[in-house]
Design brief:
Layout (H helix, E strand, L loop, with lengths): L5 H9 L1 H6 L7 E7 L10 E6 L5 E7 L2 E5 L1 H25 L1
Antiparallel strand pairs: 1-2, 2-3, 3-4
């Protein structure tokens, strides 16, 4: 897969059937790798936007080591959580100054 990385390659090999179902073959290419933050969880920390050979763009990540497709709703929920955590952290900082 074009522009891939060792993390994605590991999950593609481990989850070959799901990768094939999603069209993630040698002709697909990674458009973007981005961080996914979890409160209290140290795994499943990357997401990828991938373009399949037919031009379809999909978002993928991992869930307990399994390759999964994610959608914009999931990503928007993560953004809402990130904003809430940032606001709480800013409040904590202000309590210390």
């Amino acid at each position: 897969m074009e522009n891939s990385d060792m993390y994605l390659e590991h999950y593609l090999a481990k989850n070959k059937q799901e990768a094939d179902r999603l069209g993630l073959n040698d002709e697909a290419k990674v458009i973007l790798r981005f961080d996914i933050l979890w409160s209290g969880w140290e795994c499943d920390y990357y997401g990828w936007i991938v373009e399949t050979k037919d031009g379809k763009r999909i978002a993928i990540s991992t869930d307990h080591g399994f390759l999964v497709e994610i959608d914009s709703k999931f990503l928007c929920e993560k953004i809402t959580m990130y904003k809430a955590v940032a606001k709480e952290t800013e409040k904590a900082v202000l309590m210390l100054v």
